[in-house]
Structure formats: structure tokens, C-alpha cells
Amino acid sequence: MNIAKVLDAKGLACPMPIVKTKKAMNELVSGQVLEIHTTDKGSKNDLTAWAKSSGHELLKHEEENAVFKFWIKKG
What we know:
There is one protein chain. By secondary structure, the protein is an alpha+beta fold. The protein has one domain: Translation Initiation Factor IF3. It has 2 helices and 4 strands; from the N terminus they run βαβαββ. It has a 4-stranded mixed sheet, with helices on one face.
């Protein structure tokens, strides 16, 4: 997977991971992938719903050492 940008949103509470993700996504072109790292447990539902409603594709997500990682492809 070719990652265009990595966003560190660790330590931020809702809604900041979504706000930062939206801003970072605006800097990418269609087809590029954004990798997001967050510690907010609500991010799984928030980012999944946001990606779907914004026309982007959540490629995968995983949890590693209390850090949630997401890969979203810009639509």
C-alpha cells in the first residue's frame, strides 16, 4: 500500500481526529491513501462513518498498543 501522508492524531479527543483527517484529506488527490494514528476509542465508528459519508474508502484499520490505525483512500 502506497501511503501519501501519515496523520498523527494521538492524544486528541473527538471531534479533533475527524477534523484533522478532513484537513489532511483535502491535501491529497483522488486515489491517494492517508494513514491515521489515534488513541480515541470512538475513532473506529467516527472515521468509518465519516469515510463512507464523504465518499472515501476505509481500506483497513487495526489496533496496536492502544493506538488505532486507519488507512483511508481518497474518493
